[in-house]
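User: Hi! I'm working on a homework problem where we have to compare a predicted structure to a textbook description. Could you give me the structure for the chain below?
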Amino acid sequence: MEFTADSVVVHSLDRTARRMRRTRTWKIAGEPDVVDDAEYRLLYPEETWGILEAGRFEVLAMYDNREFRDSDLAGTVTSEPDCAGMRGRKLYVFAMMP
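Assistant: Happy to help. Predicted structure tokens:
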């Protein structure tokens, strides 16, 4: 038996509070719509670094691109979509517990 569903996702951004809200509505044939809400706190790279160091992690590297090239960590919008729908605006952190 194959299961299929469609979804519509809306992202809203509160720049002042640095929060992103995602509302996803699932549409399944013969069923009422299901709404899935999530809210994310957006962190600056320096905040992420500080949180990790406070947790006694050693930050090895941070990147804002999937090629792991050094940059100013300001983020770059890419032309191609990705699985999270953020089009490249993510922070990749490599850290270890010494």
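For your comparison, note the following. The helical segments are 45-54. The beta strands are 6-14, 19-27, 34-41, 58-63, 92-96. Good luck with the assignment!
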